[in-house]
Amino acid sequence: MAKASKYTSRTPDENGVIHWSEEENKIWSELVARQLKCIAGKACNEYMEGLKKINLPEDRIPQLSELNEVLLATTGWQVAPVPALIDFDEFFRLLANKKFPVATFIRSREEFDYLQEPDIFHEIFGHCAMLTNPDFAEFTHKYGQLGYAAEKKDRVYLARMYWFTVEFGLMQTDEGLRIYGGGILSSPGETQYVYSDKPEIKPMNVLDVLRTPYRIDIMQPLYYTINSIHDLFDISQLDIMALVAQAKELGLHDPKFPPKEKLAS
């Protein structure tokens, strides 16, 4: 069951238009300007190409129909408005139908730098550019199909794969380390942190990823890298559920972070 959110998603009108306030558009504009500077020379080429294709307005929050026009034409995907938090079942169902869930609210100024739940800035700025890439789009589609058919106890393993690819994925390129994960691309702190000497960065191994615990409320102590975006397509063709069964037998790796309760002062 999805936990409660303090945010309420905006409902599109009968024409599918969401009416944003001047302040909400201003927050979007400031977030986009800051993050475009932050990811320069750090985002992967596929992301930057996708950003050109979706042609995000910088002065206002885009309407979902504007994004759908580009996504449908490039990879057959769409974005779908959802409440602030949805359950796993709905999440997987949408992805299995080539619909990327977008919570239609934007963070408040109080949470300008960081919020735990994904808002429209995270979903659109972080993920939509990559959805114009066929390999990334196919990986995400296959992931949704697998997750929708999977049992609850197996979805936890699949969630780790999504976390270390779609959200926090890195790529080794001829130009050096580049980011393709939306959780990093939409976060100034995480973007800088990736290039510090603090996190451990390892080559992608799907079985290892399925066995790696993570926490959503801290900077990631560990990231996995692919060598090209086509690696995601190759992963989508593997028997991932057989790897999940193997991961369950082997058990989880030791977490590289302290348990939550020990952090309370």
From TrEMBL:
GO MF term (any one): phenylalanine 4-monooxygenase activity
Cofactor(s), by name: Fe(2+)
Transmembrane segment boundaries: none
InterPro entries assigned: ArAA_hydroxylase, ArAA_hydroxylase_Fe/CU_BS, ArAA_hydroxylase_sf, Aro-AA_hydroxylase_C_sf, Aromatic-AA_hydroxylase_C, Phe-4-hydroxylase_mono
Pathway membership: Amino-acid degradation; L-phenylalanine degradation; acetoacetate and fumarate from L-phenylalanine: step 1/6
Signal peptide range in chain numbering: none
EC category name: oxidoreductase
NCBIfam families referenced in this protein's UniProt entry, alphabetically: Phe4hydrox_mono, PRK11913.1-2
Similarity comment: Belongs to the biopterin-dependent aromatic amino acid hydroxylase family.
Xref: PANTHER family: AROMATIC AMINO ACID HYDROXYLASE, PHENYLALANINE-4-HYDROXYLASE
Name listed for the protein in its UniProt record: Phenylalanine-4-hydroxylase
Organism ancestry: Bacteria, Pseudomonadati, Pseudomonadota, Gammaproteobacteria, Alteromonadales
